[in-house]
Amino acid sequence: MPSSSPNTGSEPTMSTARQSRSEATQTALMDAAEKLIAQHGIENVSIRDIVAGAKQKNESALQYHFKSLTGLIDAIHTRRSRQTRQFRAELLETLLTKSSQPSVRELCTAMVQPSFDLARSHIAYRRYIKAFGHELTLTESSALSVASQHGGGGASGQQIGVLLKQALPQLSNSSYQRRMDTAIRLCSASMCHHARQPNAFRGETAELFFHSLLDALVGLLSAQESSETKKLARRLPKGTQPT
């Protein structure tokens, strides 16, 4: 009787199929979580709801792929921030081909436009903003730190930060940090609120929102510090100053 040899050609196919099913399950869980949290708020959504929304048979699917609800939400932030970083990097590259020292308004545009355009083009990204846009506004920690933890900055975000600091020589390092923290919270609150309006990110109403937000950011970052602010910043210990 001839000896049988293992069918080595089937292993990569089986492995690829398993990987494909795994990725499809992860995507379904993330999509379901975004949709449900956008509709009801994270405090009103359970793991069971998400698993059912993703058409999975039991809760172990979420635990297997993400360990916990926190792990799932971290994965959602990573997925969306990857989209945002890619868009921002391309935008910044185009901007720097025109000038090595972009204006404050151009840099603010590079901050806001990636999320705005992605939300305008993709309903799933709009849901993400509705679901999680308030987090940066309400965080008790530094909004800059939280944004970095979510992976939203990346190399392009850091480069925009350096260029903005150069474009705002009237601000000290601590003043710049306070302004940027406020700017991030303003963007977060504004985008989240706009995402909840009828016909969000559509037509001239959306364009008006976008340019009004840019006006507010430029004004916030460019304003001279008052003598009262400077005096208080010198008197207060660094650890007690708002961030």
Topology diagram in text:
Elements: H1 10-40, H2 47-53, H3 60-66, H4 69-98, H5 104-121, H6 123-132, H7 134-138, H8 143-149, H9 154-167, H10 173-195, H11 203-222, H12 227-235
Helix pairs in contact: 1-2, 1-3, 1-4, 1-6, 3-4, 4-5, 4-9, 5-6, 5-9, 5-11, 6-10, 10-11
Descriptive notes:
The protein is mainly alpha-helical. The chain has 12 helices and no strands. The chain has helices spanning 10-40, 47-53, 60-66, 69-98, 104-121, 123-132, 134-138, 143-149, 154-167, 173-195, 203-222, 227-235. The longest helix has 31 residues, at 10-40. It is elongated and about 65 Å long. Mean pLDDT is 88; it is low at 1-6.
Distance between the termini: 78 Å
Number of strands: 0
Name the average pLDDT.
88
Radius of gyration, Cα only, in angstroms?
A: 22 Å
Structural class: mainly alpha
The largest β sheet comes out as: none
Helix tally?
Answer: 12
The SSE string, one letter per element, is HHHHHHHHHHHH
Number of domains in the coordinates? 2
Estimate percent helicity. Answer: over 70%
Which regions contain 5 or more consecutive residues with pLDDT less than 50?
A: 1-6
Strand content: under 5%
Shape: elongated
What are its keywords?
243 residues; mainly alpha; 12 helices; disordered N terminus
In short:
This protein has helices spanning 10-40, 47-53, 60-66, 69-98, 104-121, 123-132, 134-138, 143-149, 154-167, 173-195, 203-222, 227-235. By secondary structure, the protein is an all-alpha fold.
